[in-house]
Amino acid sequence: MDGLEERENVIVIAATNRVDAVDEALRRGGRFDREIEIGVPNERGRKEILQIHTRNMPVTEDVDLEELSEMTQGYVGADLEAVAKESAMSVLRRHIPDIDLNEEIPQEVMEKLEVDRDAMMDGIRKVEPSAMREVMVEVPKVEWNDIGGLDATKDKMREMIEWPQKYPERFEKLGVESPKGNPPLRHAGYRKDSAGKSGGERGQRQLHLDQGARGLLEIRWRV
């Protein structure tokens, strides 16, 4: 790369999914000193990726890409491409008994080779999302009333998340700063996740979930 200085109009671009494994000497000034992180796609991004990988596939009317994009949190572009391929393979496996590989496929069998919702669901089940351990989660439509129990926890989260955004002028008048940091939820089970998501929905903040040891879920709000 040092020799490229003698040439003009040459740009070197590299990609990696393990930036921590790249030699630091390559990341210093004058070399790869500009880094662009491409994160996990959100729901809208996943839908667009699915549209790309299914546009040339015979897809039945019961395939709802909006639904599939909601179900594939943590899936990156390569994962979604694999989902589309696995879905097509699922259809082929289903009709293999009707196909004689030594002869031309009959028209009636060709018409059956359509990717339906069951095939797409099979593809999703067979492809593990790359971003399983730490993902950015879209804030879902979860209301406080959807969560049973945890009244004290919900009240505390309302104070920390909802109040500063609903009543900013009152906080300013009292000279109180909006609480920041990591409110940990240590209750076992699904409700801790729901409580955090409901807090994110009410406070319109993005959720950052880390699944730790013994199911401890810590939820951080990015203001």
Tell me about this structure.
The protein has 223 residues and is an alpha+beta fold. The chain contains eight helices and four strands. The chain folds into two domains: 43-131, Orthogonal Bundle (Helicase, Ruva Protein, domain 3); 139-222, no CATH class. Helices cover 40% and strands 8% of the residues. Strand 3 (206-211) and strand 4 (217-222) form a beta hairpin. Helix 1 (43-54) packs across helix 2 (65-71) and helix 3 (77-95) crosses helix 5 (117-126).
By DSSP, the count of extended strands is 4
- CATH fold name of the largest domain: Helicase, Ruva Protein, domain 3
Instruction: Give the biggest beta sheet.
Output: 4 strands, antiparallel
Q: Helicity, in percent? A: 25-40%
Overall geometry: flat
Total count of helical runs of at least 4 residues: 8
Cα-to-Cα separation, first versus last residue: 40 Å
Strand order of the largest sheet: 1-3-4-2
> SSE order, as H and E?
HHHHHEHHEHEE
Question: In total, how many domains does the architecture comprise?
Answer: 2
Mean pLDDT: 72
Pick out the low-confidence regions. 181-223
- Assign the CATH class of the largest domain: Mainly Alpha
Outline:
The chain contains 8 helices and 4 strands; from the N terminus they run H-H-H-H-H-E-H-H-E-H-E-E.
